C-alpha cells in the first residue's frame, strides 16, 4: 500500500508592488498522510490554500519548506524521477470545458498518457486500452465515444473523459480539484459516485478538494478544514461535520444550507405558538 | 376582469417564450404563477431550463431572437393600477424598469463597469430617474445605499476592482434597492461566492425584505439554499414549470419525479446519504 505524506509543508508567495514586497503565506504548516485506501476531503473558503496544496503535491509548485514523500521517497524536482512521479500522481481539474483540447478526439486524450508510458505496443492494443478505460468511467458504448471531440459531449461526459485520462497511467494518488462544481446538479452525484467506486476498487488515494460540506461528508473518510493557510481541523468525516471542534468549522457549517435543520426549526417554532 | 386580491403583485399567465432561430427553441412553455407582495419565490432548475429567460421576459428584457409568443404578465402596482408589461414600450417601459422592478444580474460580480467609480454608477440611477434631485442629496442617498448593504460609505470613491467579490455583490444589491422597487429579480446572485459570504448576503437580503417589504424572485440551481430562504418554489425543466408550491411542502412531499430527482441530488449535510451509493467502510 502506498502512502503520500506531507510533513510540515509550507508555501509562501512573494508579491511585488513597485518597490514593496509582501509575502503571502498560502500554506503555513500542512502535515497529513494520504494512504491509498482513503479519500480525504479538503474544504475551506476560496483563498484558504486548498489548491496550493494540490499544486504542490502535483509538482506544479515547490514547497518553500517541508517535505512531500510518496512511499518514503521525496518528491523529485527534475529528470526521469519527476516524470515517473507524475504518472503516480494524477489530477482531475475543475473545469471539464477547459481541460480538454477541442482539436483532439477523446481517443487522443486518453491514448496520450498511455503512449507516454509505453503501456501498449500497437494501434489495436491502444484502442483496446482506451475502450477499457472509457468503460471504467461508464462511457458506453465506448467505441461510439472514442472518436468524438469534446464539444460533442456534455459536461458530465467530459469530466468522465478527464477521469479516464487521469486513470490511464495507473496512478497511486488522484487529486480531484472541485471535480463537480462546474457540472449541472443532477449530474454531480453520478460523477462523485464514479470517483468513489474507482477509489475503492482500485485502491487509489484520493484528495477531494471542495467547498461543499455535504458531499465532503458523504464522499470521504476524513475531512480537513483549511483556513488562511492552516489546517484547522482534521478528523473522520462524520465527526468533523456532526461534532465540529474548531470555531471556523462551526462557522462554515452554519453557513452551509441545510433544509432539514431549517424546517425542523420552523416546525418547532410553529408548534410552540 | 375577475376581482383581484390586493395582495398579489405579479400575475404571469400562460407565458410562452420562443427563441426564433433556425431551429426555434421553445424556452418557456405555458408558465403561470402568482407572486404576492413581500413574498420570495424561488425558481429552481438546471442550466438551460429557461429560468433566466422567464425572469428576463418579466422585465421585457429579452433580446432578439427571443420573443414572447403569448401569455400575459400583469404587474399590480401599489397605487392600484395594473400594468400590462407586454404593452409597455419606450418611455413608459423605461419608467417601469428599475422604478417598479429591478434586477441583480447573473455574474453580478462582473457587471459593474471597471473604469467608473462606485458612486458614479450608483448616482446614474438617480440622474436618470430623479433628474431634479440636487447633487448633495444624490450623494447622501448613495452613501445610505451602501450602508444598507453593510459596505463602508467611504468606498463610494473606489473602483470595482478595489472591492472584494462579496462587496461588489453587495453594491449590485444596493443598486437594485436604489428606487425602492416593489419587485427585485435576483438571477444567481450568490453563485460565485464562498459559502460564508453567501450566507451573510442571503441574510442581508432577507433582512432588507422584511424591512422594505419588496418581493423577490430568486433564481438559482442551489436547491437546498433556495428551500431555506423562500416562501414558494417553482421547479423548471426544459421550459416547463413542473412543480410549484410552498417550499416546505415541496421539500417534504415533492410530487413530480424531476423534483424528487433534483432533491436527491443534494445529499443532506446532517441527515442520510440521499442517492449516494458509496458503501460505508467498516471502521
Automatic annotation (TrEMBL), chain A:
ABC transporter domain span: 4-253
Keyword Cell cycle: no
UniProt keyword terms in alphabetical order: ATP-binding, Hydrolase, Nucleotide-binding, Transport
Any one GO molecular function term: ATP binding
EC number: 3.6.3.24
Record-linked InterPro entries: AAA+_ATPase, ABC_transp_ATP-bind, ABC_transporter-like_ATP-bd, ABC_transporter-like_CS, P-loop_NTPase
Top-level division of the source organism's lineage: Bacteria
Enzyme class per UniProt: hydrolase
Presence of keyword Cell membrane: no
GO process terms (BP): transmembrane transport
Entry-linked Pfam families: ABC_tran (PF00005)
Name used for this protein in its record: Phosphate import ATP-binding protein pstB
Organism field: Bifidobacterium pullorum subsp. gallinarum
Amino acid at each position: 500500500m502506498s502512502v503520500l505524506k506531507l510533513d510540515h509543508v509550507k508555501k509562501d508567495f512573494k508579491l511585488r508592488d513597485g518597490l514593496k514586497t509582501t509575502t503571502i503565506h498560502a500554506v503555513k504548516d500542512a502535515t497529513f498522510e494520504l494512504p491509498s485506501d482513503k479519500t480525504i476531503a479538503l474544504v475551506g473558503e476560496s483563498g484558504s490554500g486548498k489548491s496550493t496544496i494540490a499544486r504542490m503535491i502535483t509538482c506544479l509548485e515547490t514547497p518553500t519548506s517541508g517535505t512531500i514523500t510518496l512511499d518514503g521517497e521525496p518528491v523529485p524536482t527534475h529528470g526521469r524521477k519527476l516524470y515517473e512521479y507524475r504518472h503516480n500522481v494524477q489530477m482531475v481539474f475543475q473545469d471539464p470545458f477547459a481541460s480538454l483540447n477541442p482539436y483532439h478526439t477523446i481517443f487522443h486524450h486518453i491514448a496520450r498518457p498511455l503512449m507516454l508510458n509505453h503501456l501498449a505496443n500497437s494501434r489495436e492494443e491502444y484502442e483496446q486500452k482506451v475502450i477499457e478505460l472509457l468503460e471504467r468511467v461508464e462511457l458506453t458504448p465506448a467505441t461510439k465515444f472514442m472518436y468524438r471531440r469534446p464539444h460533442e459531449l456534455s459536461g458530465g461526459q467530459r469530466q468522465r473523459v478527464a477521469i479516464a485520462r487521469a486513470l490511464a497511467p495507473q496512478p497511486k494518488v488522484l487529486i480531484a480539484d472541485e471535480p463537480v462544481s462546474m457540472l449541472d446538479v443532477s449530474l454531480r452525484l453520478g460523477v462523485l459516485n464514479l470517483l468513489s467506486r474507482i477509489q475503492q476498487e482500485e485502491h487509489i488515494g484520493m484528495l477531494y478538494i471542495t467547498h461543499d460540506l455535504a458531499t465532503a461528508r458523504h464522499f470521504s473518510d476524513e475531512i480537513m478544514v483549511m483556513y488562511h493557510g492552516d489546517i484547522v481541523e482534521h478528523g473522520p468525516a462524520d465527526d468533523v461535520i456532526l461534532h465540529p471542534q474548531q470555531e471556523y468549522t462551526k462557522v462554515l457549517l452554519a453557513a452551509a444550507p441545510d433544509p432539514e435543520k431549517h424546517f425542523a426549526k420552523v416546525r418547532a417554532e410553529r408548534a410552540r405558538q | 376582469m375577475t376581482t383581484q386580491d390586493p395582495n398579489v403583485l405579479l400575475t404571469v399567465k400562460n407565458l410562452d417564450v420562443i427563441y426564433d432561430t433556425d431551429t426555434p427553441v421553445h424556452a418557456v412553455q405555458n408558465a403561470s404563477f402568482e407572486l404576492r407582495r413581500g413574498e420570495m419565490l424561488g425558481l429552481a432548475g438546471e442550466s438551460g431550463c429557461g429560468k433566466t429567460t422567464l425572469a428576463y421576459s418579466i422585465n421585457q428584457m429579452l433580446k432578439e431572437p427571443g420573443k414572447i409568443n403569448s401569455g400575459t404578465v400583469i404587474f399590480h402596482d401599489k397605487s392600484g393600477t395594473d400594468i400590462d408589461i407586454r404593452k409597455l414600450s419606450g418611455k413608459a417601459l423605461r419608467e417601469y424598469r428599475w422604478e417598479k422592478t429591478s434586477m441583480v444580474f447573473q455574474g453580478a460580480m462582473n457587471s459593474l463597469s471597471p473604469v467608473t467609480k462606485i458612486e458614479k454608477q450608483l448616482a446614474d440611477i438617480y440622474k436618470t430617474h430623479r433628474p431634479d434631485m440636487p447633487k448633495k442629496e444624490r450623494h447622501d442617498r448613495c452613501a445610505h445605499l451602501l450602508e444598507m448593504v453593510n459596505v463602508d460609505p467611504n468606498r463610494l470613491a473606489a473602483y470595482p476592482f478595489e472591492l472584494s467579490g462579496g462587496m461588489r455583490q453587495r453594491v449590485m444589491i444596493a443598486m437594485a434597492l436604489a428606487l425602492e422597487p416593489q419587485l427585485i429579480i435576483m438571477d444567481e446572485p450568490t453563485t460565485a461566492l464562498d459559502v460564508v459570504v453567501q450566507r451573510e448576503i442571503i441574510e442581508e437580503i432577507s433582512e432588507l425584505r422584511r424591512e422594505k417589504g419588496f418581493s423577490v424572485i430568486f433564481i438559482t440551481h442551489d436547491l437546498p439554499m433556495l428551500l431555506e430562504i423562500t416562501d414558494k418554489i417553482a421547479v423548471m425543466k426544459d421550459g416547463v414549470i413542473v412543480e410549484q408550491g410552498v417550499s416546505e411542502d415541496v421539500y417534504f412531499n415533492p410530487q413530480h419525479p424531476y423534483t424528487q430527482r433534483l432533491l436527491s441530488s443534494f445529499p443532506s449535510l446532517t441527515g442520510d446519504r440521499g442517492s449516494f451509493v458509496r458503501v460505508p467502510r467498516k471502521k
